[in-house]
Amino acid sequence: xxxxxxxxxxxxxxxxxxxxxxxxxxxxxxxxxxxxxxxxxxxxxxxxxxxxxxxxxxxxxxxxxxxxxxxxxxxxxxxxxxxxxxxxxxxxxxxxxxxxxxxxxxxxxxxxxxxxxxxxxxxxxxxxxxxxxxxxxxxxxxxxxxxxxxxxxxxxxxxxxxxxxxxxxxxxxxxxxxxxxxxxxxxxxxxxxxxxxxxxxxxxxxxxxxxxxxxxxxxxxxxxxxxxxxxxxxxxxxxxxxxxxxxxxxxxxxxxxxxxxxxxx
Length: 265
Known about the structure:
The chain is of the alpha/beta class. It has a single domain, classed as Rossmann fold (3-Layer(aba) Sandwich), CATH 3.40.50. It has helices spanning 62-69, 92-102, 118-122, 124-128, 136-148, 164-176, 194-211, 222-225, 254-262, and strands at residues 18-31, 34-47, 51-55, 77-82, 85-86, 103-106, 182-186, 214-219, 230-235, 238-244. The protein starts with 17 loop residues before the first strand and ends with a helix.
């Protein structure tokens, strides 16, 4: 599985070529005698190396949108093109391989294996793929990821010996270690305090800025969204506004909060 060996190249700014495109996405499902329209014709594009935040309140459709973009669910209508492949046109097996080889996911829950230590948890994608992560380039990759998320010295700690923030950093490293074309993060700081949440966001931002990793982040928090280059404001199943923040190191949320206030959010 050579895709596991293709790490993202370094880049300080996103390139112009889109790596992810959504065209007129809708998602509806029955709820009792009514039909819920979770998404109502969403189109968007994400460039390689870009950090994009999908921001909106609970029930706005942002998590539904992320699940469609990442191939975890299929739209009622419309298309998602991920790394040149239209997901809905793929067989179940090909869609699974596309997700495995080209995407990484980080969620609120850490989903670590309790009996495995930090290194073993991060190496899990390689182990599942039948590769030996203790040798050569894969071992170097693991060490690089442990350094990225500031867990040097804790390589052999089990999850119950780590703080919640450290556990989430392991989850981030596990999602990044295969060098995915896209990293999807769904409220990754939702269960963490402010300081610890910033540590996770700092790690994500560094992976984007220093290593060219493309990131799509779902959040309801303006201070988290301010790490992104661009914020798509989601409401009532639509993209209500696009706020361009640009790549910057201070992650100040003042401009974003001011624009959200204008939108009544």
